[in-house]
Design brief:
heterodimer, A: alpha/beta, Rossmann fold, about 35% helix, B: about 325 residues, mainly alpha, MetI-like fold
Amino acid sequence: MTPAGAINIHNVSKVYDPGGANVLAVDNCSMDIAPGEFCVIVGPSGCGKTTLLNAIAGFHEITGGEIRLDGRPICTREFTAEPGADRIVVFQNGALFPWSTVLNNVAYGPVVQGAASRPEAKQKAQSLLSELGLSGIGGRYPNELSSGMRRRVEIARALINEPKVLLLDEPFRAMDALTKGVAQEFLLQAYDRVRKTVFFITHDLEEAIFLADRVLVMTTRPGRIKQTLHVDFGRPRNFKMRASKQYLALKTQVFEAVREEAVSAFEAGERELA
Amino acid sequence: MADTPRRNRGCPARRKRVERALSVVAIDTSRPSRPAATGQISTWSLSLFRLRHWLSQSSPYLGFLGVAGLVLLWYLSTEFFNVPRFNKLPGPVSVWREFTSASPTFGISIYTPEYYMHIFWSIWRVLQAFFWATVLGVPLGLFMGWKRTFRDYTFPVLEIVRPIPVLAWVPVAILIFAGIASREAPVIFLAFLATFFATVLNTMLGVESIDEVYFRAARCLGSKSRHIFFRVVLPGALPFIFTGLQIGVGVGWFSLVAAEMISGEYGLGFLIWDSYVLSQFPVIIIAMLTLGVVGYAFSAIIRIIGSTLMRWTDRSAL
């Protein structure tokens, strides 16, 4: 049994250096995420949420501190572990390979890792797709699907590898409210099934509370954790909880925490960094 | 059945036709490139429908008028008015007569094997040049686009060599291949050069056009370098590669004809120059028009291969 995916972020800082001007994107940021926890990070644009995610994924180095996955350092000042299938990213604008069919996209991970032969991987992909209610689209190309469907397939493409951590970078950002609701419920169902650690970034406070075990509010740049809110709703969750009093109270609380930061970010008017 | 009103006769057949056309239209608009949908209707009825649709638009007729206008202008300036400077050129009537004559004055018409011999040699040379340009150019372009350091080494060389006109290579080509190969080699080499540069450059740009996010996703999913090469770099660059091949085959024909004029026996370029030297003017026009048709067919074939390989792009929808 593989370890369950605990993330420890300890005093992480990241300085960008665009054109000689040092910009502190993340400053002394620390958080511990328990194995199997659904953790949502909210904060104003440019607060370093994505920087943090990229560091965990292995796309960026950091300039201070340390990130550990199950006790093993994966990102420190000196070294950044290669990206790998133990922490898979679902990207903001989607990254399904447009030249592959849905089935080949989902089967991609097991094939390239050598975990399964091509027919085995395809079979596994097919059964995962039907398990997630996506059967019948295996032969289609991503361009032929709606954005909501594409996002679901991308989540399936990540889950097939049984990653320790799922990193989602505003995956439902560009969707209309209705599609978004359906996509969120899909993610919750998938989460209930696998219970992997989830690191989820969003602007959307509603979404944060609906999905999370814990909401972490980040400050304006330089980003650090300003506030932690526990969401004590049971699982499985459904859209009906969105109307409950408890939910609205929590929403107000998060809104107040974020508003301050949003206002100061707005007034600073700084450019968003990747 | 006997008392079926006259006006309804033949209706079922017509209705079937209309339904078939309508079903194609329905699929056409709702699911532009769903493979299953194209499988449900026969290719024949689909192409028939497309042909009918095409003929119902004005553009084919306007195109025909354009061509007819050009031929008319040619006829008027040469055979009808004998405009000075044009009066030495053969007119459309004499070219057509020569082209369709069973015993042509200058030995080249649709009935003579020599005509097809020239076409065959030119096509054969272009195919060889095209083959080598693809085999060498596509991998080189892929690596140049993919590996920064490799590009830093090779790109300046390419950029210096590329603008040299193909005709400037003629002496070098003859010197390189003198004695070691047949007379074919320098001609093919010149056509190859032009095709090669277009292929390399477009392939490289194709790799550069791939969104960084696909590389990241591939690495996340546990890809090794070879997977990234074969499953991201190559398919991602494919649309540009085919653009490059299409441009490449065009400039390949261009260079081939130039090379055939200088050294060669057989081939359409040779035919044009030979006919000029021997004052067999209608043959020049025949060879020129043949080049136009064959060249067009080549790029059409590449376009078709490209769009069947890339069903996933919007461009090739249905």
